[in-house]
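Table S2 (continued). Query chain:
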Amino acid sequence: MPLDTSTYSLALLRLDGRRWNELRRMHAQISTQAAADGSSYLEMGNTKVICTVAGPSEGRRGGAGGGGGGGGGEANATVQVEIGIAGFSGVERKRRGRGDKRTSEMQMTIANAFSNALFTHLYPHSTILITLHVLSQDGSLLAACLNAATLALIDAGIPMSDYIVACTSGSTLSSNSNDEAADPLLDLNGLEEQELPFLTVGTLGAGEKISVLIMESRVQVERLEGLLAVGVDGCKQVKEILDQVVRRHGEKILGSIVT
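Corresponding output:
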């Protein structure tokens, strides 16, 4: 029986059937790579990311390997981030090199965010390497990378002040429209990101302390407050999902020890 789409406009549903404040399906696992100190796999809709963490360990410092880095000098550990985007991950089937500008910006953003959230002062003269592999892209790529890195760092046992959780929010009208009544949207997919202005927001835990705020498109300033409020609320939902993943993994480990 064909899907009846005649009520979509009345119900204000989006192209994928979600309402304006609904997240896409999110699936996550931790300890997916036995050889890594910490690892995770995360899906946000059709965006799929694998993350591994190595360290804290001595050795690589500065910008070695072409990754983005952040840290507080010799007294603190340095956080290094490397992102590899598979050529088959997007529609264009184009492989990005190490010098890709967008990839470098994402690496630096993630490194700076976790340099402030991790207790790097506990590991002087050391390096924490976060490696992200993007298998599929369908919007919210930076947010997915931040969420996957959070889970992998938790799996590695590196202490941090709280989760860094992220999602995107956008506006239903383009930046050229002067309609201030444009509705906000939560967790944009790839098609929506191509057409609509959006921002990526990351918060520390379930609170409203913002650790990441990136906007790469133009938008009316009157809409910004609404976009930010929706993004922060979405981060609270993501925090609950990631917390459930960590708790389930912890219960599984405890169960295996008891038995």
